[in-house]
Amino acid sequence: MPPPPTSPRVDGVLLRMARADDDVDLVRLAALDSALPLAGPALIAEENGAIVAALCLSTDRAVADPFVPSLHLVELLRRHAAGRHAPAAAPRGRRLLPRVALRAG
C-alpha cells in the first residue's frame, strides 16, 4: 500500500519583506520564471536560504523558481499578504452584558 499523500512541507520556509539587497535575486527569479521583474514592495519566500517565490504586494503578481516545487509557497505568500490587509478581528473573551434587575414577585 503506498504511503498517504502529504501536504507540501512548509517548515524551513521564511516569509519576509524584500529588501534592497534582494533586487539581484528577484531579477534572477523573474528571469527563471520568464517574467518581468516585480515592481513595488514584495513579499518573498525563502527556502534553505534561497529565494524561491515572491509576490508583489501592489499588483498581486507572483514569480517563482520553476525548478523548485513552489506553488504552495505562492499560495502561502498570497494568504499571508491577505492577512496583512485584513481588518483586525474583534478581541475575544468576556463580553460585558448590562445588568438585569430581577424583580421579586
Task: Give a structural overview.
The chain is α+β, with helices and mostly antiparallel strands. It is globular. It starts with 12 loop residues before the first strand and ends in a 20-residue tail after the last helix. It has a domain at 13-85: 3-Layer(aba) Sandwich (Aminopeptidase), CATH 3.40.630. It has helices spanning 23-32, 71-85; strands at residues 13-17, 42-47, 50-56, 62-64. Strands 1-2-3-4 form a four-stranded antiparallel beta sheet, with helices on both faces. A hairpin with a 5-residue loop joins strand 3 (50-56) and strand 4.
Annotated CATH topology of the domain at 13-85: Aminopeptidase
Taking strands numbered 1, 2, ... along the chain, how are they ordered across the largest sheet? 1-2-3-4
Distance from first to last alpha carbon: 72 Å
Write the element-wise H/E pattern from the N-terminal end onward. EHEEEH
Question: What is the fourth-level CATH superfamily of the domain at 13-85?
Answer: Gcn5-related N-acetyltransferase (GNAT)
Strand content: 15-25%
**What is the 3D shape?**
globular
Number of helices: 2
Structural class: alpha+beta
The strand count comes to: 4
From the alpha carbons, calculate the radius of gyration and give it in angstroms.
22 Å
User: Under the CATH scheme, which class of the domain at 13-85?
Assistant: Alpha Beta
Question: Strand count, sense and closure of the main sheet?
Answer: 4 strands, antiparallel
Mean pLDDT: 82
Name the features.
single chain, 105 residues, alpha+beta, Aminopeptidase, 2 helices, globular
